[in-house]
Amino acid sequence: MVANHQLCLCLALILLLLPAVSRARDTIAPGQPLRGNDTLVSSGAGSFALGFFTPPGSNNTYVGVWYAKVSLRTVVWVANRADPVRGIVGDNGGATLSVSHDCTLAVADANSTVVWSVSPPPGAVHGGPCTARIQDNGNLVVSDARGRVAWQGFDYPTDTLLPGMRVGVDFAAGKNMTLTAWASPSDPSPGPFVAAMVTSGDPEVFVWNGPNKVWRSGPWDGVQFTGVPDTVTYMGFTFRFVNNAHEVTYSFQVPNASIVTRLALNSTGVSGGLLQRWTWVEAAGAWNLYWYAPKDQCDTVSQCGPNGVCDTNTVPVCSCLHGFTPRSSASWALRDGRAGCVRETPLDCTNGTDGFTVLQHAKVPDTTSAVVDYDASGEQCKQRCLRNCSCTAYARANLSGEPGHRGCVMWAGGLADLRVYPAFGQNLYVRLAAADLGSRSKSKKKVNIVVAIVVSITAVGILAIAGFFIWRAKRTKARKLGLSTWSAGSHSKEGLNEGKGHGDDLDLPMYDFETIAEATEGFSTDNKLGEGGFGPVYKGKLEDGQEIAVKTLSRTSTQGLDEFKNEVLLIAKLQHRNLVRLIGCSISGQEKILIYEYMANKSLDYFLFDKTKSKLLDWQTRYRIIEGIARGLLYLHQDSRYRIIHRDLKTSNILLDKDMTPKISDFGMARMFGSDDAEINTLRVVGTYGYMAPEYAMDGVFSVKSDVFSFGVIVLEIITGKRNRGVYSYSGHLNLLAHAWSLLNEGNSLVLVDENLKGSFNSDEVLKCLKVGLLCVQENPDDRPLMSQVLLMLASTDTASLPTPKQPGFAARRAATEDTSSSKPDCSIVDSMTITMVEGR
Ligand SMILES: *[C@@H]1O[C@H](CO)[C@@H](O)[C@H](O)[C@H]1NC(C)=O
Ligand SMILES: *[C@@H]1O[C@H](CO)[C@@H](O)[C@H](O)[C@H]1NC(C)=O
Ligand SMILES: *[C@@H]1O[C@H](CO)[C@@H](O)[C@H](O)[C@H]1NC(C)=O
Ligand SMILES: *[C@@H]1O[C@H](CO)[C@@H](O)[C@H](O)[C@H]1NC(C)=O
Ligand SMILES: *[C@@H]1O[C@H](CO)[C@@H](O)[C@H](O)[C@H]1NC(C)=O
Questions:
Q1: Which end of the chain is more exposed for a tag (fewer CB within 10 A), N or C?
Q2: For a substitution probing ligand 5, which of 367, 368, 391 has the most ligand atoms within 8 Å of its CB?
Q3: pLDDT number for residue 739
Q4: Is 3 a member of any domain?
């Protein structure tokens, strides 16, 4: 009897303990609220938890959703963000989250006082009892007895967009889904920063700080937002933009829960932007910030005012559209462009003599009050704009090239918040009076006046600096400098001149600023060759007749100085036929200048992506270029005394000398690595999207294999004559890598070859290069060959024995699955992305 009794007690105890052990329930029901010290965990992969939390530094308790498997507590959604339970979590064991019979969700404190509640709209509930469940995608869903959704957290985002969540307007449901940053890291209540979709005109996403617009995405161009040039996808990410009568929304999806990623609006981001995309890197136990906005000066709304154009690669960043002149030359000269620009010649609508000038690579102006016609073709747009006297510009509304997607956007009045990119963006057609259309001489004169003002203002400063340097030059006659002192971290002027004789003594000729200014005709625009990684590049000629390329470190660039030193140190130590040679440098005051041998044929992209110039690159030349780049890279990775990862290989960094010998340049991003570091992790990802390996772009992990990936992209671009980025017009939505891979698998690769080769190429060599290129861009870095293996493969004549490439990285990048309404007729528009180099005289 006694024994029996004990058994009963035991069983009762076990029964009592059981729920405590397997506590991971995911649902609450009427009469079974969630208590303050308890959490719900989603079933399935168990990705999300819902419970009470107190932010660090706060005295309040909130109900929130966070990642169950991420070791850093990261709250992605808050129910009662403005209506907390007073006191911290530990003291709030009695607080509850409950759901009522009729679907009302409520948070109450320990005294059962309700501090926050939501009820579904009348008619949404079809009989109780209701339940609330945390789903494995992070959505808290309240459903009625029939399982219909009465209310869900995804319709009320906090500051984070999770995969599957939408931002934008659902007209049918009368909902506007926005992101609102926390007031501070200790206070989830709504702060001043809001990200929301503006649906008037051509819809785009804006970020506000209170009443002020801070950033805008630019409209969706059918593939991406035109103001987000660095959109990347990874492992099957997809972006979805829906624009129809029912909703205008943006969302993104991941193929499965193993990819932990979020887009958040973070008011404390400052240098890391406001909108941030993060991925969780389990190996590092950290979040990796892989994209953010605003990113640079020109991202700030209306930096250059109406009809002004912002370009981070020029100094100053603001200039006027062709045919326009600064409204206030005084403030313009003081580098304040916000007043914008005015037309030189009024439009002449009645006589019909107006025309259009093209601004290339533009982020189109603010579209809030623009007029959009999703049915018009490019030519119809032009005609319509010309007929309407208030129309000042137009652009195409959809560049995806998908059937049924075309249309145009037309602007009236001043064109606000314009910027240009080196090689992104779209064509903007700006209306001008006939007088301003043809020659640029008139506008040049006015620009010259502005330049004169700028020059006279800065001249005073330069004179002062120059005076100082003349005085100093007299003091220290040294014309050469030991650069090794830089590597020791000393970059004071004393260190530069007196630090000879330590470690590797690298004597690099140092030139006077005046000598360089003379050689480049005062850094004249006519001598400008293009834009380097951190400033403009000029052509020059030294007194002895030697031609040089002069690379200046632009003063607006913040990271430039370290990168400049990095480049000098690295490149001064490197000597190879396929690396660009540094001749000297010049440092005076703020100006830092590198002097290189001059490359008569500019850069590879200058030829490759230009319809006429690419004809000059026959297959033999292209093949030699591929081999040359491979040798240069092998030298960097393995053969030089310093093992170097370049990190920013791209066609614009491959320079060509007069014999078309390729030379790798731009070492501003390069890193030296020890022989035992197989890979390096960085949380500051630099480089160029489109050439960047997926593991680097997403996780910040780089190794020699990331350079191999970029090399593979370059090889494929050389074969096809097309950019990896910007090729969306192929069948389906494949990018260049995926397209090449699928054609290889179909045994149909030769259709890829650049038409400009006119069928004259060695198909064995092409196939070999194609295979090598695809081996280099495989998703998994371990699958990619080393550069030594690449050279062996290039040298082999047996293409068939090469391994079969696996799926390339970023292959799953797909264009938007934009809703296709039947009224949008077929029209393929491919905006050609052209060269980054500015043509010399
Ligand atoms: C609950 O009520 C008591 C008595 O009115 C009060 O002292 C206490 O602060 C209340 N607690 C909360 C969490 O509001
Ligand atoms: C998740 O998706 C990635 C990419 O598609 C894939 O490599 C991985 O195997 C998937 N994981 C699971 C658990 O399905
Ligand atoms: C907000 O941004 C800062 C700076 O980039 C970062 O340190 C912080 O972790 C971010 N907060 C969240 C919640 O991601
Ligand atoms: C239209 O053309 C006529 C003749 O060339 C000219 O006199 C007139 O000023 C023009 N109108 C406008 C608005 O420019
Ligand atoms: C002319 O353009 C303005 C502004 O873009 C627009 O509001 C107006 O409807 C247009 N008029 C016609 C007739 O298309």
A1: N
A2: 391
A3: 83
A4: no
